[in-house]
Design brief:
This protein is 71% helix and 0% strand.
């Protein structure tokens, strides 16, 4: 007798479940004491073969085996475990005749033990499903923010480079001019570059949070810079906060050079310094509270893991 993978390959090749192949499937699954997820997955993949000709016997066989797997896979038997329920829900999205027959069989078996089918496996109202789909795909509106941030950062990089060129041109035209002019141009370019980096971090962070991970196929995961590893709004906020703080510090340094002008006086610079200090303090407290929360969660997860290990050994 052939193994399951050989039978599946033959079915995919001829796009049909013949009586002989149906008999082989029944014998293979009859010899399995407990159907695991891999074996159950094969039954779904067989019915999903494009333009496949399936006999009525396969429908009854499919419904019986998948229902048995879902109800008897984990303890206590006769109930649908949450993980198995999620696994099943992800595979019955089309709700074809096989899926409907499977859900009906599960509902009947659960009725026999005075239980009901979980709500997340029941078919939703079509209007609710469409509205949820609309909400889900509305995340792609974030692409506008990503494109706008990246384009703006590109413009700022050009402007920052222009400031450097302007300062160098002025220096070569008059090398003996006051150094403050060149110094101011260079500091201004750093300020512009930092703000451009803020926009890049914002654009990449929004894309990772709402669209997909930025993972080039030819780059290993270890090559990703630390600021690119954004998995939550807190990560994005932390990365942006650090760079924005640098922007404020550089801006303060630039305005120090203009302290004799009519716009910046010592008292106004003092107010600016106090404002930057308060912002940095707020960022520190936010980062500290987030770190403590992660540490507490880590301790809780570790304690749960140790408890599970102890119970398994007992």
């Amino acid at each position: 007798m052939r193994d399951l993978q050989s039978v599946r390959s033959e079915i995919r090749r001829i796009k049909k479940v013949t009586p002989e192949l149906m008999h082989e499937l029944e014998e293979i699954y009859a010899d399995i004491a407990h159907i695991d997820e891999e074996k159950a997955e094969v039954l779904f993949k067989i019915k999903q073969v494009e333009n496949i000709d399936l006999p009525p016997e396969y429908k009854r066989f499919f419904v019986d085996k998948i229902a048995t797997f879902v109800l008897d896979h984990t303890e206590p038997k006769g109930q649908i475990a949450k993980e198995d329920g999620k696994w099943l829900r992800s595979r019955i999205m089309n709700r074809d005749e096989y899926d409907k027959a499977l859900l009906e069989e599960l509902s009947n078996r659960l009725d026999n033990v005075n239980m009901v089918l979980p709500d997340y496996l029941k078919k939703k109202n079509p209007w609710i499903s469409k509205f949820e789909d609309l909400l889900y795909y509305s995340r792609y509106f974030a692409i506008a923010a990503v494109v706008g941030a990246v384009v703006s950062s590109f413009i700022l990089f050009i402007q920052g480079f222009g400031l450097i060129v302007r300062g160098l041109v002025g220096f070569f035209q008059d090398p003996y001019a006051k150094y403050e002019i060149l110094f101011e141009q260079l500091v201004s370019s750093v300020d512009v570059f930092l703000f451009a980096l803020v926009l890049i971090i914002f654009g990449v962070g929004v894309y990772e949070l709402f669209i997909a991970n930025v993972d080039p196929e030819d780059k290993p995961a270890e090559s990703r810079p630390a600021w690119l590893k954004i998995s939550s709004v807190d990560d994005l906020k932390s990365s942006l906060g650090k760079v924005i703080l640098m922007v404020l510090i550089v801006s303060f340094f630039k305005h120090v050079l203009e302290i004799d002008s009519e716009h910046w006086t010592p008292i106004s610079l003092l107010y600016l310094a106090i404002g930057i200090l308060l912002i940095s303090g707020a960022l520190y407290l936010t980062h500290k509270s987030g770190s403590e929360g992660d540490h507490g969660k880590s301790k809780e997860d570790t304690g749960s893991l140790v408890k599970d290990l102890i119970e398994d050994n007992i």
